[in-house]
């Protein structure tokens, strides 16, 4: 039996980086969840195929439809999975294996959170008196976690040449990129044979459907592929740029597709809302939701909380969510993933428009290689600055990858959605230990991003959102941080919906160091203020010498549930005096579920 056949039979699927599991039963192949309309409170049903092999959607009456669009009621259309035919061997740690576990067990001594209790073998979510609640983070990663990362067949293979290999590798990538796309959106892989490849410039992985694959990410060129980044021309360059290279934050819009959102309130976690002109939208449309940064909203969030700096001002920090339309029911649109902040019409008139996807790169990956940046060590900053920058792309991945001696990041993601970084190591950056440096794994203006089974050492902010209110839905999962000089955190200006799930800290640069910050950064940097909101530390281990700071932003909340070590919202250890966030169960083993992300994904894919 093939993996695909196994997945369809089980009714669940492999997911990159985790063991994707269906709750008891395991025979569901569709997710049929009630989504509450923000304006009416009535339920609309979205049916979404989640198996690897798309199946026919069904109507609410049980009849069948065709061509990927189903009907769930009068005036309602829904989008089924658009996953194509990519396959995976499922034989390594990044593609996982499909299993359906027994019911969620609560053995003696275990406990569940008061705000995420288990009822009827499923998680429930309790909101506070401001409507704050923990959202569903399971939509992060390649194809929203609904498909394994594919093992793309090799089409071209090359080995190293003497001297600079930049043009040599680029030629192979562009040759493959000129070939036609397959029906699955893939062209194939360029395979770099074992050896050392000196790189004096920047390699551009700019064609959809192309994978750059090495022979391994170890330190032995006899068995692994090592890109050796040489020199500093241009100054502080990126070694590999994946995607179009555009970091436009989804601002390009298709003409005449903008409509106001007329729902009075979209609470955090909402996936449905009413629009003034629903005729502009169809199932499958890629849309951008914008909540402008108004004076009223700024007043509600205390000017951003920038300490002694000037309050945030002007329309420079809109709350932005890139989404796909999954259902249209009268005036109500249902989108593929939740919003990670309240969108309150009393504070700002939100609107939606169709995204202009011209030039967007999809189905690209980097895997099984090592980037070692040549430096003089110490505080040297005249060298390649980032190993991989992902810009202007969707449904992409980096896996089984190691980067060393970068100054900024091993992987930084900008204007990207639905991306997985799995089994990656970001080791020993070389730069001054100060601002704008050493963000080992960074998200700057990207959404629905999954980092899983990653390792960071010797940097400042190891797992960080250095974006602002354009960043949300980011999951850092089952990863380790060793020797940090500062905290993993939302870094500045209202990053939304970060989940730190089973992260282990060790050996901070000094005892008592803040190693996790879901908090106010006041007048740090450029009026950083409230750096992260509606964000969660779940079973986070701060280590014996680290501290996690959890504080409550105005109109929002941050959470630490379970975990080990020290958590506080008070000053000190917090750098600025603000209300403490929600902290529950520190040092108490047996939290159920152990991983919030894994359970949320399993419940969604299996229809819980």
Automatic annotation (TrEMBL):
Residues 1-20 form the signal peptide. Residues 25-112 are annotated as: Disordered. The lineage of its organism: Bacteria, Pseudomonadati, Myxococcota, Polyangia, Nannocystales. SUPFAM superfamilies: Pectin lyase-like. InterPro entries: Pectin_lyas_fold, Pectin_lyase_fold/virulence. This is Uncharacterized protein. Residues 25-98 have a biased composition (Low complexity). The keyword Signal applies. Gene3D superfamilies: Single-stranded right-handed beta-helix, Pectin lyase-like. Keywords: Signal.
